[in-house]
Each structure stands twice: as structure tokens, then as C-alpha cells.
Amino acid sequence: DNDGRTPFSYAAQQGQTVVAEFLLETGKIDPDIQDNDGRTPFSYAAQQGRTVVAEYLLKSGKIDPDIKDNYGQTPIFYAAQRGHTAVVEFLLKIEFLFKSGKIDPESKDNHGRTPFSYAAWYGQTEVVEFLFKSGKINPELKDNTGQTPFSYAAWGGQTEVVEFLLKSEKIDAASRDNHQSTPLTIAAQFGHKEIIELLLQTGKVDLEAKDNDGETSIFCAAFAGHTEVV
After folding, report:
1. How far does Cα 176 stand from its chain's mean position?
2. Which one of 35, 50, 146, 191 is at 20 to 30 Å from 4 when CA atoms are compared?
3. What's the pTM?
């Protein structure tokens, strides 16, 4: 169609396993064909949490489950963003279950961000916990702006994720990005009071820490009009 997508792509997205199987068995389609955004049918199946279709495609051995799209994102990115823990778990196990290649759970997109970073930002706590406990990722990997997944959780106001990561004691609660902003500064800027309280309770953050503009967390909160935070 105008988006460069095929019937097979839509069948995978909608979880139509019988249709997908029929089309694949004809031998007349490219199961890894990429649309205008560089996305594959498997990418859409992962995004929608279509575990049955995903399992069928992986078992077929006819797809590459780690193809990057135009944004540098692989299927596991989309599963993580949407909170499809079962798909994420499945993907990390495929090298043992099928002959479909390996998945890089620390793959970085064009912004230098990982699936874990997006899961933290969107508050997908179950995915965050699974990836963290899998031991296959570095939860402190920074993106092109120097921000960690924890910073994004603070930015997104994801209290459950922030609380989980703080309890792990493996996170630098005062990490600085390229602008020298900290998770506390970011949380203050967006008025996330509960996260600010959690950060202060750690005793590991500095209220007076300044970014490259010389602004503290209190300044950021005041400037943004978050009276309840100030």
C-alpha cells in the first residue's frame, strides 16, 4: 500500500496466524520485507503482542527478528514500549528455542536509546523488572544526550519504575546527562512530586546541584510553575 506494507505485514500485526502461515508457505513472499519506515511484519507482531504469530514466525526460521528500522529500532523495542513482557521474554530465549539468530537486548536506536530505556520512560514496570533481572542488560547505559533509563523514568513520572530501580541499589540516582541535569532536576522541571520525594529519601541527591545553565532543581520547579514542588 502507500505505506509500503503488504498483506503479510497486516496479518502479522493483527495476529492472523492462519493467514500469515498460508502466505509464508506459498514461498512467494519476503517475510522480512520492510515498509517505508523500515519495519518488518515481525516488528508489528511484536508491537501488538501477537505471541502466537511471533512464535510461528520464529519457528519457521525464515525471518530475522533483529532487523533495525529507519529509526534504528528492532522488534524488541516495540514490545518493550508497549509492555508486552511475554514477547520480550520470548525474544530473549529464541537463541535456545529456535534457529532464528540472536536478539541484542542492548541494541541502540538512532538516539542511542535501548529497549530498557523506553520501557522505563513509558512506565512498563513488568518489562523493566524482567529485563533488569535477566542480567542481559546494563541498566545504566546512557543515550546520545547522556541520559540513563532512570533519568527517563523520572522524566516520565513513572513512580513504580523509579521505586523499583532505587531499591535495586544498582542505579546512580544522581547521574548527570550532557547538560549536567540530574534525575532530580528533571523530575522537578516536570513537577513529579512523588519522584522527588523518593529521590530525596535516598540521601544521595544534591538539591543544590546545578546544570550547565547554573539552574538547580528548585529553580527548575519554580520556573515551570510547580508551586507544590517548590
Report:
1. 20
2. 50
3. 0.89
